[in-house]
Amino acid sequence: MKKFTQRSTTLLLAAGMGLAAATAWSAETLQDVMKRRGLSQQDLLAASKTYVPTGKRDDFIAFSSGGQSGQVIVYGIPSMRILKYIGVFTPEPWQGYGFDEESKAVLAQGRIDGKDITWGDTHHPGMSETNGEADGQFLFINDKANPRVAVLDLRDFETKQIVVNPIYKSEHGGTFVTPNTEYVFEAAQYASPLENKKFYPLEEFNEKYRGGMTYWKFDRKEGRIDPKKSFSVELPPYSQDLSDAGKGPSDGWSFTNSFCSERYVGGIEKGRPPYEAGCSAKDTDYLHVINWKKAAELVAAGKAKKINGHDVLMMETSIKEGILFLIPEPKSPHGVDVTPDGTKLVVAGKLDTHVSVYSFEKIMAQIKAGKFESKDPYGIPVLSMKDTLHTQVSLGLGPLHTQFDSKTCVAYTSLYVDSQVAKWDYCEGKVLDKISVHYNIGHLMTMEGDTAKPAGRYLVALNKLSIDRFNPVGPLHPQNHQLIDISNDKMQLIYDMPLPLGEPHYVVAIDAKKLKPAVRYKLGTNSRTDQPHPAAVRAGEEHTDKKGNKVEVFGSLIRSHITPETIEVDVGDEVTIHLTNLERAQDETHGFTVSTYNVHASVEPGKTVTVKFKADKEGVYPYYCTEFCSALHLEMQGYLLVKPKGWKASKTTLAAGTYTEAEYKANVKKVADTQVIIDSVVAYITSVNYKDFPDVVAMVDDAFDQLGKTKGLKEKHEAFAAKKDWENATLWAEQIWQYQVKTADLGLRAKTYLEQNGAKKVK
Ligand code: K7E
Ligand code: CUA
C-alpha cells in the first residue's frame, strides 16, 4: 500500500508538470496501410465516412430493439459504436435492473396473471414526436410475445413504465405514435378471445376469437402511459400486423395491415395443410383504416364496453359510427408506412413484387361518398383497392418495409427475398437505384425516417442473416446492421456492424443534438419514479435502524468509501440497504453488491437505490463497490456480519495498527506536496477561460467539493499527534490526502481538457 501511494504522488507530480504527454507518430503512409491491409479506394472512402476520431461524436443516435433480449441497444451513426444496452423487459445486471428494489418495481408492472415474465420479444422502438417531428424526449418499445409496451425516458435512458395489454395474448404493430404523442399504438397479432382466461375451441375461431388495435394514452407531463384513459378498437381475427399513424392531412387516422385474413387455423398434426398455405391462399388481405380521433370521442361518450376493466369499442359500434374501414391489399403485406407529408401510405406485400401506394385523399373521397365495394363477414365496409390506389411499383421480390428520405418523394424499401434495398420515387412510381445487402433484410431505417421531417443522409439495413460477413462464432450468428450512405444518387454500403444480443427487428435514429440527457440526478432521486427517494441521505445523515427483525440502513457512497462500513444483523433479519451516491462528478458511478445475496445496484451520481434481502445465512459477507471508481476503489468495501442466534462477543476492541511518528510526518509532507500540485493546477485553470467550458466548470465544482471534505481534518490529525496517538494522526492525515487525490485527479482532467480544446489565457 505504501508503495502505491508514493508512486501515485510521483505520477501526480509528473502529470502536474506536463511530463506525461509524449505522442509518437507513425511513419506509415495511407498507401502503406492500403497495401498492407489490402484496401481499395472504395474501402478508404467508406472508412472515412464512418470514422469518428477520438473525442468527436456521432451525428445521430440510434435506438435499436434488442429482439429476444428484451432490451434496447443504443448506438451512434455513422460510427456504429454501441453506447448502451438498456434493460426493458429483462433484468440487466450492470444497471442493477431487476436486482434493486426500484427497478424490480418497474419489472413487476409487467407481470401477467400474477407471474413474472423476465424476457421479452422486442420489435419496434418508437420515438416521441412533437408536430410530427422526433423530439428526443421518450422512447417506446413493444413486446410481441407477452403483449406489453414500455416507456423509456431519454433524460436518463431508463425504463420507467411497463403496461400490459389487458385484452391480447400477443401483439406486433407497436409502438407507433401520433404526431404529438397523444397515443401510442399497439396492434394485436395472433387472434385470441379478448376476455382473460376464456377458453373457446378453434372451431369457434370466427365467432369468438378477435384481433384489435389499442391506443395507449400518453401523458407527456407525467412521462407515463395512462391506462385508464387508454382504449382499444375490436377487430376481426385477421392477424393485425404493422401500423402507422396518419400525419398532416391524415392526422387522426391510423392504418394497420393484416395477414391471414383467410382466418385459417392450421392443424399440420391432423393432416391439414399448414398455416403457411392456409394463411396465404387468397390474393389480398385487409388494410384497416381507423379514425382514432373519433374513436377516442366515442369512448369518452361512454360508447365502449368494458372488457377486463378496459374500454373496448366493439366492431358493431365502430361500423355504426363510421370509424372503421377495410381496403384490400396485396397478399401477406408487412409494413404500412405513411409518407412524411401524410398524403399517401405505402404497403409492401411480402408475396407480391409490388409496393402499393394508396392515396389518403382517395380513401377519404370514397368514404365520404359511401362507396364501398363490399362488406367483410363482420359487416365492415370494404373500399375498392383500385379506387384508392395512387400507384403500384414493381420493386423486386419480398418487399417488407419502407422508409423515407429528406428528398421529396424518395423512399427506400427492403426486399427480403432479393436481399436488396430499393430506392424509388413514390410520386412518379419509378425505381431509382438498388443495392445488395447481406442478407435477407427485414426492416430498414433512415434518420428520423418515419417522421414528418426525415433527415436523410444514412440508411441502416437490418439483415436477418449474416452468413459470411463476420468471423464465425458458432452456429448462432450475430445480426448484421449495414450502414448505407444515401446522400448521393447512388447508394454506397459503408459499414457492417454485428449485433450480438437478439434479433433487432427495428431501429429508430434521431439527430444527436435533439437529445439532452442529464449527467447527474438531483441528490436523492429514485430514478424509476423521478421522485425524491424517501430514504435518501445527505453527507453526515447516514444511520441504521433496527426494529424487531427488520434492519434498515440509510447509507451513502462517495469516493472511496461506503457509509456504513459494517452492517451487523442477526440471522433471519430482513435487511434493507438504501444507498445515495453523494457524488456530483460526471461518470462517478458506484456499484454495490453483497456477497452471495443476489443483489446489485448501479448508483449514478445523485441517485438513491435500495437493495433488500433476508439475511438467512449466518456468516461474514463482504460488500463492495462494483465500479472501478477511483484509485482506492478496491478499498470501497465493508462487511455484513450475520450473527448466529444468541451470539455473545468475547472481545470488544479492534486490533490496533502500528504507526510511528515518522509515518505520520511522511503523510503530512505528502499532503503538503500534493497541495502544491493542486495549487498549480488551480492557477492554470483560473488563468484561462475555463468558464466557457461547461464540462470543465462541472469538473472544477466537483474538485472543490472533494477538497471541501478536508475541512477540520488538519486540526483532527494535529490533535491526535499532540496526544502521540500515531494511528489516528497518521490515518486522518492520510484521509486528507485521499480527498486531495480526488481533487487533483479532477483538476488534471480539467487541465488536459482545456489544453486539448484550445482554452485561452485571460487577464
Ligand atoms: Cu418486419 Cu416485427 Cu417489424 Cu421483424 S417485423 S422484420
Ligand atoms: Cu465506488 Cu468503486
Q: How would you characterize this protein structure?
A:
- The two termini are 43 Å apart.
- With 763 residues, the chain is of the alpha+beta class.
- The protein folds into 3 domains: 60-397, YVTN repeat-like/Quinoprotein amine dehydrogenase (Methylamine Dehydrogenase, Chain H), CATH 2.130.10; 525-643, Cupredoxins -  blue copper proteins (Immunoglobulin-like, Sandwich), CATH 2.60.40; 661-756.
- Mean pLDDT is 94; it is low at 1-8 and 15-22.
- The longest helix is centred in the last third of the chain and has 31 residues, at 726-756.
- It contains 14 helices and 45 strands.
- A hairpin with a 5-residue loop joins strand 22 (374-375) and strand 23.
- The radius of gyration is 31 Å and the shape is globular.
- 47% of the residues are buried.
- Strands 8, 9, 10, 11, 12, 16 and 17 form a 7-stranded mixed sheet that branches.
- Helix 1 packs parallel to helix 11 (661-687), helix 11 packs parallel to helix 14 and helix 12 (694-708) packs antiparallel against helix 14 (726-756).
- Sulfanyl-(tricuprio-$l^{4}-sulfanyl)copper binds at residues 123-124, 172, 242, 334, 400, 442-443, 505-506.
Tags for this entry?
763 residues; alpha+beta; Methylamine Dehydrogenase, Chain H; Immunoglobulin-like; 14 helices; globular; binds sulfanyl-(tricuprio-$l^{4}-sulfanyl)copper; binds dinuclear copper ion
